[in-house]
Amino acid sequence: MIDFLLDFVSLIKAKFERKRLHRRWAKLRQRGMGLGADVWLPASTWIDPDYCFLISIEAHCGFGEECLILAHDAQMDEFLDGARIGRVSIRESSHIGARTVILPGVVIGPRTIVGAGSVIARSLPPNSVCAGNPARVICSIDEYLEKQRKKIHDGPVFPCITSQSSREERRKIAESVGVTSGYVVGGRTAELKGQGGTPRTPQWFSSP
Predict the structure, then answer these.
(1) Cα(77)–Cα(85) distance, rounded to whole angstroms?
(2) Residues with Cβ < 8 Å from 176, sequence gap 6 or more?
(3) 74 and 115 part of one domain
(4) Into how many domains does the chain fold?
(5) Rounded to the nearest 5°, which phi and psi values hold at 82?
(6) Higher model confidence: residue 153 or residue 125?
């Protein structure tokens, strides 16, 4: 009985969190922020609240946890009674790793991947993979994808994990990646069918 109640409470909490996330997305757009469809913008992503109207995120972008997106810099305010502001434009199909800091006045992408923990102080070119502090180009996205495609071909490869995955399936994955990396496939396909576990902005969202 206790387990049933805990599961029920967890389900209600998950639905509440999803509703709150959708409400946040809608409020950001109401305040002038550009936010396209099919964007994963988690609750932990900090958006500059007073200057969110200077921020634009196009369709199909994604963010890891605890990213910061800043459209103003007030560090000199005490001395100059002024702060720097700048637009932040994250173009279509760009993906930002966890705990990345994005500073004012930059354009990212389209089709740019940024490694976790990066600091983006200058614009990053399209079709590139970037990382570091400050973030800089490591390789082209085509080079990166070809390298990963070969690794997927060589395996090990597993179907995407879901809440229905069995203990045995999880055990096999854990054993297989004990000494090497592996890949799970099918997650994006599931999301496009509405079966994924990652909440994304609705398809009717489009930048104002």
Answers:
(1) 12
(2) 156, 158, 182
(3) yes
(4) 3
(5) -155, 155
(6) 125
- Name the token pair of 201: 């902005």
SS3 97: coil
Same domain, 49 and 121: yes
Question: Do 4 and 75 share a structural domain?
Answer: no
- CA–chain centroid gap for 94, Å, is 9
Same domain, 22 and 90: no
pLDDT of 87-144, one tens digit each? 999 999 999 999 999 999 999 999 999 999 999 999 999 999 999 999 999 999 999 9
Q: What is the pTM of this model?
A: 0.88
Give me the residue label for tokens 């809440």: 163
Q: How confident is the model at residue 206 (pLDDT cuts 50, 70, 90)?
A: low
Range of the domain at 190: 155-195
**DSSP β-ladder status, 128-132 and 135-140:** antiparallel
Let me know if residue 150 belongs to a domain.
Answer: no
